[in-house]
Write a structure and sequence with these properties.
Length: 429
């Protein structure tokens, strides 16, 4: 079973994945196929073992927008270490905890299985895929180790046997709250669907049309669809018509038969449950004008057929000043949202560059036996023809604030946002 799944997955990566031409020859599937076949013949290949082998194979493509995961169906569970870290210099600082109660925020890992952090960086360069410490993801590296040496903020050092806990389910956060008389704070954790944002704007629309300032926090945003935040766009731009240039995101879509089948299936399922009429209409256009029309044609240039790359947004007076908080945990549709925000004079972007995963985007899903799910890109940015694929990624903020351990104790990004809003108020008086 596992051998057949892997063969089909390799076929997808060599024909349907949008980066297959750019990255031809980067992977070595035979080595992984031999390992899978050998373990399977011996009866030693587990679900999690297969998962790890495939995830390691996919690293060859150097694309953080590729995912191969277990499907949570109650019978099989995903596990993690129950905490999150971020590297600063030679330490991994604990920035969040879930199920692991023996570790506190601000504790720092000095080594894993006696290997110092900087040596781990070299060892796992392939997995980290980053050149800056603050952008590294250690989520899949730490579970490979058993013992951590930890120092707390007081300088006390101890060793800890690492445990694995059932991974907590993701919880959406779409909120608006007032932080002072002039300012509202909006937090958007994803753009999976328009309903949560539409609901927020129904409740707080009147306040938004009167408030002086708005802070939008997308530092952690899992992406989704750009159609999901359409109702928010009018608040982001000045009153009147604003021309938006999206040629940065000109792309070609790999309209293979398999991609068409998979994406049309997802679109039809989505159409069954959505209420937003504009979202519904745009999804239908995406289905009919792209996947139905161009099925089987391979890479198709959609830029001349869509008005999406240059379009108008009719803005309004309020909010007058907007700050958008970003970080590298904001990706996919989150990247595009921040790019949009940088086109309006109302907005200042503060924080760190976004994840920058849209060189290859518009993900398709392939599922096997209700156990495994591969998510891979079907579209490719035209700009890749004019720059190196390995160029530094992410939409850069207007005000860059490097991440430091001080962020664990206080929200430096928010402090800078409030300070800037006060300065703008003084200038406008």
């Amino acid at each position: 079973m596992y051998t057949e799944i892997f063969q089909e997955l390799v076929n997808i990566m060599h024909h349907d994945y949008a980066g297959y031409i750019d990255k031809k020859g980067w992977d070595n599937p035979e080595r992984y196929a031999d390992s899978i076949r050998d373990l399977e013949n011996k009866g030693e290949l587990t679900i999690n073992g297969f998962l790890e082998i495939v995830q390691d194979y996919l690293l060859d493509f150097k694309d953080p927008h590729i995912f191969f995961n277990l499907i949570g169906n109650g019978l099989q569970k995903e596990y993690d270490n129950g905490f999150r870290v971020r590297r600063y210099k030679d330490k991994l600082y604990v920035t969040a905890t879930t199920n692991e109660k023996r570790i506190k925020l601000g504790d720092a890992i000095l080594s894993l299985d006696r290997i110092p952090v900087l040596e781990l960086v070299k060892k796992h360069k392939r997995q980290l895929m980053e050149s800056k410490a603050e952008r590294e993801s250690w989520r899949k590296i730490i579970p490979r180790y058993s013992v951590a040496k930890i120092v707390n903020p007081q300088g006390n050092i101890r060793t800890l046997d690492l445990k694995k806990y059932e991974k907590e389910e993701y919880k959406q956060s779409h909120t608006i709250k007032r932080i002072d008389n002039d300012t509202l704070l909006m937090t958007l954790s994803d753009f999976f669907e328009p309903t949560p944002i539409d609901h927020l704007l129904e409740i707080y629309g009147e306040q938004l049309q009167k408030t002086q300032n708005l802070i939008i926090d997308v530092r952690t945003n899992l992406g989704g669809s750009t159609l999901s935040y359409k109702s928010l766009e009018k608040y982001l731009f000045p009153k009147g018509k604003n021309k938006i240039d999206f040629t940065f995101y000109n792309m070609k879509v790999n309209c293979t038969n398999r991609n068409a089948d998979l994406i049309i299936k997802v679109i039809e399922e989505e159409l069954e449950k959505i209420d937003n009429d504009e979202y519904r209409e745009r999804l239908k256009q995406w289905k009919e004008q792209t996947w139905d029309k161009h099925r089987g044609k391979g890479f198709v240039n959609l830029n001349d057929e869509s008005s999406e790359n240059t379009y108008e947004i009719t803005g309004q007076d309020f909010p007058r000043s907007i700050i958008v908080l970003t970080d590298n945990y904001c990706g996919s549709a989150g990247d595009i949202f921040v790019y949009l925000c940088k086109q309006t004079p109302k907005i200042t972007v503060i924080g760190r560059p976004t994840m920058g995963v849209n060189d290859y985007s518009n993900l398709s899903e392939m599922v096997w036996n209700d156990q495994f799910k591969l998510m891979y890109a079907t579209s490719r940015l035209d700009q890749l023809d004019h720059r190196e694929i390995s160029a530094e990624q992410g939409i850069k903020p207007d005000v860059y604030i490097p991440w430091t351990p001080e962020h664990i104790e206080k929200d430096l990004d928010m402090e800078e946002a409030i300070k800037l809003l006060r300065e703008l108020k003084t200038l406008n008086q």
